[in-house]
Amino acid sequence: MRRISAIASTTFTELIRLKLFYAVCAIGLLLIGGSVFFARFSFQEEFQILKDISLGTITIFSSLLAIIATANLIPRDVEDRTAYAILAKAVPRKDYIIGKLLGAIGLIALSVLMMSALFFAILALRENAVLNALQQSPASSPQDMAATIATIHHAASWQLVAPATLMIFLRSAVIAALTLFVSTFATSNAFTIVVMMMVYLVAQLEPIAREYWLQARTAGVAARSFLALVAIAFPDLQALDFGDAVASGIVLAAPLILKAAMLALFYVVLYALLSIASFSGREL
Q: How far is the C-alpha of 271 from the C-alpha of 184, rounded, in Å?
């Protein structure tokens, strides 16, 4: 654990110094902060647009950061011969891979936390602004006022959107683990990024293709086996995306969140094991 934690902390420090990290976070924070200027409708539509834009921004930029930052870890160490120095000190390759992955996941966690904090702050500010405007509006019946206030509290509740931001983090962790696996046999970080962009597109469209396949064909053993292999090779990212549901005001049930989190953990562990197997058989 000391070896893994040392590699993870070093990797996290290296990644956090990248200009890419600050550029991605800065653009994401600007988009989330600017989302308030695009929401000038009824308060239900305003909060829905705020959550749509903010959760979408966090998803896109955390995924982009997971791909670009992780793709450069192993090729850069090999090119700079840092990997040779680390592995020459009796550090097992599995510890090296796990440390690199944990460092990348730590960077993703920090970026998601920063963007989520701004998102929650904007929700709280808009909730107070809407409530103040409501109090200054013409009086309505106490029952209607209480129902409206309850609706506003529900729409702007951070407890409603917190599970969605957690799933965004886990979704990005899956992407980082898969990117690390590709980078273990890739010849350059550019190749890894291109492959991962295509994999990301396939993973986004996989549920639609799977549903069409099962409806158009008889779902026999061969078809189900093939779809299972595709599901392992290309993670179902739609199963880990609850942004649209949360933006619409749907409360995510705890069993659903737990199931999605276990699925994300399965993918992370699977791709970590594949990365270890691939990197262990690589000649350096």
A: 11
Q: Is 87 exposed, middle or buried (0-12, 13-18, 19+ CB in 10 A)?
A: middle
**Run means of pLDDT, 10 residues per run, the chain, 284 residues:** 83 82 81 69 70 87 90 83 78 88 93 90 78 65 62 67 89 93 84 86 74 60 66 78 79 87 92 91 72
SS3 187: coil
Residue corresponding to tokens 């600050």: 22
Question: With 0-12 CB in 10 A as exposed, 13-18 as middle and 19+ as buried, what is 2?
Answer: exposed
Q: What is the dihedral sign for C-alpha 8, 11, 12, 13?
A: positive
Q: pTM for this structure? A: 0.85
Amino acid type, 183: S
Residue 237 CA to residue 225 CA, distance in Å, equals 20
